[in-house]
User: Which sequence fits this backbone?
């Protein structure tokens, strides 16, 4: 569904002119009052609301304040006369309005503003959809990674139980044989030992089921079909997501994504990796004690491979660097606690790539994602 541009003005000639000027570029709705505008927004997907300020019954700012509450995703623009500029500026400062335009508006300027607003609405919509898919993917991979760790931890003790059950079964069989030879009341003894044997069988079935469940949980989640994805674009979406979550303000982020390598993957998975690497680097940089934390992000193509580097000047990693990729690893939050980096490495390996950590010549910590580049934009 294409989002509409809704123009609100109490003067009918202005509505007609707006539709004539913008109708060929955007799907347009018009309303002669704030009340009608709100009714239209209940019936249609509206990406941009552009309203005149001076209207009877409900001013433009009052309308946009209601839109902010009832339809917060819509981009809000105001057309105002010179005498209303202070009110418009106050509305912008309070977040009710994204931008205002002065009367009379120029057609080309108006169309350009609306294009920017529609692009922003579409980007926000795309980010929200990716956020939902990221949550679903992260839950699935988190369960998979944690289950994989549990499988490794439980395999040995379950093996011990299984071996001891075998010993018990053998001992029961030997005891039954000995009783049949030496004990006159063998029937009662055989019945008691048969109960033990049945309990051992049930326990063995339980161990088998535990192993089956662990192996099933440890499987990678099913993925959507792979497509050609721009790695630099995935980074830009991840940066916007980081900004929306409040992470980005904790460190200075330098971005160099002039090279836009293409890879075969799902967009959700690439954004997931980029966001995990960004969150990790920002958290590390924010803990720098003697100066400004800096995160550097770049994309490149090297030796036919698509490369994403995320570096930070946070505290150096002590001990085994590979520990950061272990779920709930030792050393605190900056040394691998959580599953974000473990998930990222697993996804990278499933895509035929690698995720590695190293120290740079500038004594920064660099996480490098390397993936097979798509050939001619159509595959590996």
Assistant:
């Amino acid at each position: 569904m294409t989002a509409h541009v809704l123009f609100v003005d109490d003067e009918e000639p202005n509505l007609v002119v707006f539709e004539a000027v913008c109708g060929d570029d955007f799907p347009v709705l018009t309303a002669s009052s704030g009340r009608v505008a709100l009714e239209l927004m209940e019936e249609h997907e509206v990406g941009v609301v552009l309203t005149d300020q001076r209207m009877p019954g409900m001013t433009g700012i009052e309308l946009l304040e209601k839109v902010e509450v009832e339809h917060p995703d819509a981009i809000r623009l105001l057309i105002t006369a010179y005498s209303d500029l202070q009110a418009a500026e106050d509305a912008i400062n309070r977040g009710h309005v994204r931008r205002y335009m002065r009367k009379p508006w120029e057609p080309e300027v108006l169309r350009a503003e609306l294009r920017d607003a529609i692009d922003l609405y579409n980007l926000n919509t795309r980010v929200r959809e990716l956020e939902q898919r990221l949550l679903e993917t992260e839950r699935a991979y988190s369960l998979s990674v944690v289950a994989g760790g549990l499988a490794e931890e439980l395999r040995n003790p379950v093996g011990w139980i299984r071996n001891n059950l075998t010993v018990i079964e053998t001992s029961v069989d030997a005891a039954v044989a000995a009783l049949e030879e030496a004990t006159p009341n063998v029937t009662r003894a055989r019945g008691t030992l048969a109960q033990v044997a049945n309990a051992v069988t049930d326990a063995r079935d339980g161990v088998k089921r535990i192993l089956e469940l662990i192996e099933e949980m440890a499987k990678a989640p099913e993925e959507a079909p792979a497509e050609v994805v721009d790695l630099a674009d995935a980074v830009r979406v991840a940066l916007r997501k980081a900004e929306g979550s409040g992470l980005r303000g904790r460190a200075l982020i330098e971005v160099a994504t002039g090279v836009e390598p293409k890879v075969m993957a799902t967009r959700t998975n690439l954004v997931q990796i980029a966001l995990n690497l960004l969150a990790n680097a920002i958290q590390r940089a924010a803990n720098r004690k003697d100066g400004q934390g800096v995160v550097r992000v770049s994309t490149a193509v090297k030796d036919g491979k698509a490369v994403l580097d995320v570096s930070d000047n946070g505290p150096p990693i002590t001990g085994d660097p590979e520990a950061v990729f272990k779920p709930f690893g030792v050393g605190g939050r900056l040394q691998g606690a959580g599953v974000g980096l473990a998930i990222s490495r697993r996804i990278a390996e499933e895509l035929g790539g690698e995720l590695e950590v190293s120290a740079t010549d500038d004594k920064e910590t660099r996480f490098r994602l390397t993936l097979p580049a798509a050939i001619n934009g159509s595959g590996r």
About this structure: Confidence is low (pLDDT under 50) at residues 329-337. The CA atoms of residues 125 and 220 lie 28 Å apart. The longest helix spans residues 107-182.
